[in-house]
Amino acid sequence: MTARAASRPVGTVTRGTTNPNRLRRMDRWIAAVHGAELRRATDPVAVDLGYGAAPWTAVELLARLRTVAPRARVVGVEIEPARVAAARPYEREGLVFRHGGFEVPVQGSPALIRAANVLRQYDEEQVAEVWQRLCVRLAPANPATGSRGGLLVEGTCDEIGRRHVWVALGPEGPRTVTFATRLGSLDRPSDLAERLPKALIHRNVPGEPVHAFLRDFDRAWASAAPYASYGARQRWIRAVRDLTAGWPVADGVTRWRQGEVTVRWEALAPRR
């Protein structure tokens, strides 16, 4: 694979914090939801954008994607040259590392761009521009084959990946928001508010949809307390099932059992 023409990387250097298995919840969701698109893609390239000071997340992404798309390849992209140099010894068949930023210096149109914990340091006003820049780089939809195009997954998680919230975007823009957690560590669903992506974290205030959603989720969680005797998973499933009465939940019990719930973006989008 050859990179695009060299140019000044777009973006700023992140803290680079990373840990093995930190992004496992996001990766498993991507494999389940986007696996079919990766399998049908002519060139199933995935980009781990801003992988950080160590290459663990890119290595893990390749392994997880290949369980559902054996031809998948991963390009780790970092804006800090020293991090790229440190990652090069980990290159292997299907995995390379490139210096770059939001311009995404890979040839062609990626089937997937994952940007985890990258926009946390940016201002909220910058998010839309970054999203647009990255969505333009995605593989386009192809109605003739039923393809919805590439996927951008952008979100935030804690240091060991117990709590995570991400937005999924296609070439046309944002589609869904997913909340994912290790249920055994959860006190109430609104605990996930601290991991909202930059586009939503400052909107968790009265009058904004995401605040109303988390309020209703906490109420459903409280109402589902009797199910706790069967375990946190059963309580979560019941709470999410109750949520579907008032919110456009986009997934089903198979994903709920994983400690996830996905909601249509338009229901949580900030009010302008």
From TrEMBL:
It comes from the Bacteria. One of its GO terms (molecular function) is methyltransferase activity. Keywords: Methyltransferase, Transferase. GO terms for biological process: methylation. SUPFAM superfamilies: S-adenosyl-L-methionine-dependent methyltransferases. The keyword Transferase applies. This is Class I SAM-dependent methyltransferase. It comes from Streptomyces lutosisoli.
